[in-house]
Design brief:
This protein has 149 residues and is α+β, with helices and mostly antiparallel strands. 33% of the residues lie in helices and 34% in strands. A 7-stranded mixed β-sheet has the order 1-2-3-4-5-7-6. A hairpin with a 5-residue loop joins strand 6 (129-135) and strand 7.
Amino acid sequence: MLVPIDLADALLAAELLQLQRLAYRQEAELIGYPDLPPLKEGLPELMDSGETMLGWRVDGELQGAIGFIEDGDGILICRLVVSPAVQRRGVAVQLVNAVLDWVGAQPLRVSTAAANAPALALYAKLGFKPVRTSQTPDGLALVSLLHTG
């Protein structure tokens, strides 16, 4: 079930941070990049992120979450995390679709590692198109994607 996550609630934010660390550790291993910035994020940074956060709960357990912000260019997905125990069961699709419904006709942007084939496949399936590639100073290749409705 889709639920809002109030990042001002330290218990909810801590629960999200635990899920985020599980999911991003798995991604770091998948793409061969152990220094993913979300793995270094602490509770204060998460709580102060300014993101609108939606979670996916089943039987009270937080299984996934998506965070996004509005900026001058539309909406930016800042994070999408799914528990490794429930991946490939449609949780990420539900979360992204919820944001697509939320934003209506506004452009929706996201970036992911070029080596993250599962994420790229998910976004392509949902109608996102690659618009730019870039590289972090330490060499991580990124793909920026756009959904225009």
